[in-house]
Amino acid sequence: MPKTGTRDLTQGPIGRTLFVFALPIMAGNVLQSLNGSVNAIWVGRFLGEEALTATANANNIMFFLIGAVFGVGMAATILVGQAMGAKDTALAKRVIGTSATFFFCVSLAIAFAGMPLSRHILVWMSTPAESLALAEAYLRIIFMAVPFLYMFAFLSAILRGAGDTRTPFVFLMLAVVLDIVFNPLLIFGIGPFPEMGIAGSATSTLVANVVSLAAMLLWLRHRRHPLWISRHENSVYKPDLAILRALVVKGVPMGLQMIVISLAMIMMISMVNAYGVDYASAYGAALQLWTYIQMPAMAIGAACSSMAAQNVGAGRWDRVNATARTGTLFNFLMTGALIAPVILFDQTTLSLFLPEGSAAIEHGRHLNHIAVWSFLFFGVSFVVSGVVRATGAVIPPLVILGIAMWGIRIPFADLLQPALGIDAIWWSFPVSALCSMLMSLAYYRWGNWRKARMLEPDPEAVAVPSEVPAQAPSPVADQGTRA
């Protein structure tokens, strides 16, 4: 690999390239989950239940804010990937300049609006009175961290589009290590640090992201990264309206997918809660395990999207199709490798989250035997959707997800409970995931996603057919008609 970490995803063996590219993404997901768990231990065990409740409420807001721009970040990844595949560095820098201006302005607006509104937001969320003051202190600092969180996420997105997952992982690891180290120092006032209590936990997140973002920028400048924007190129920060429109129009549907999933999960846990604490805690323990089981599919799907974007830009449709096939195979192998021990050692894995002898353990074993297989089907949908989105076809994956969640999963779980009891909820997971996979594969086979485009075509450009010969270069904007 070159010293910048960028990788030409239009060349080389598909399997090895995709696997190596996806590993840092998956490792980064694991790091973030472990970071959240460690921070929760410090707050919960040493500051009490009120403090843990406060951070849980505030973190829900932080995750929503990050999720709100997730789609725009994905759009930037695809645009940069297509430009790099087409060997159009100038276009890639225009995308980066417009995206950077967008993320910076939005993050500042959120930070300045959020800090004074923190208490009102928490009250609106019905935060318990005994945790309200703690949550406000925590959330105000989190809002201060938003610009750095957003810019770090933005830089990671464009580097992935350029074929570099190693650099975002290295600096994410730096942020996680700093967050873990500074948490106890700032919470308890160890050494020269002030004792800040719960505010110290939020401050450690702020400090970690400021340092990591600054270090990443310095590294990119020092290594003369091909996408580094020098002083004489500052004009690219002026928003390009065509690129800005693509970021919003294509990014919003991708972001809405997270909202569709989140709302569906709220509905599911509401139905489970009606059966009592044993079933609810069993479901909660299963969700903890599912967080890790779905990581390979999410990492492979994100890697497939970047890889497909570069090959779309290069007109390498043979490699786009091969990426989808290889990603699907990897999903079955890697997700299956995690499902197997969860089933074989279900008593042990569930006991990590439930008291010994709890009736919830047997409930958890039963629901896992039914529902955990759904992640094999979910992974196929995630991979296929990642590939088709790489052309700019973002609406069909959203529609398919909406049908699977709200047209199949929720009605199945709700309407069949009189006949199946709580098993209707558990069976709704594999049934909806299987339907989602079949719909995704059908759209991949017969849909018009190959004719989609991220940017409006240049009116002076000559139209090209949607199926470009394997070696023929294709301008990023010329992918045919809109899907």
TrEMBL record:
Query: InterPro entries annotated for this entry?
Result: MATE_fam, MdtK-like, Membrane_Transporter-Flippase
What is the protein's name according to its record? Answer: MATE family efflux transporter
| Main location, first listed in the record | membrane
Is Transport there in the keyword field? Answer: yes
> What subcellular locations does the record give?
Cell inner membrane
Supply the CDD domains for this chain. Answer: MATE_yoeA_like (cd13138)
Q: Which Pfam families match?
A: MatE (PF01554)
- Keywords recorded for this protein, A-Z: Cell membrane, Membrane, Transmembrane, Transmembrane helix, Transport
What residue ranges are annotated as transmembrane? 61-83, 95-117, 137-157, 169-190, 196-220, 241-269, 289-309, 329-350, 370-388, 395-412, 424-444
Query: Which superkingdom?
Result: Bacteria
- Where is the segment annotated Disordered? 464-483
Taxonomic lineage of the native organism? Bacteria, Pseudomonadati, Pseudomonadota, Gammaproteobacteria, Lysobacterales
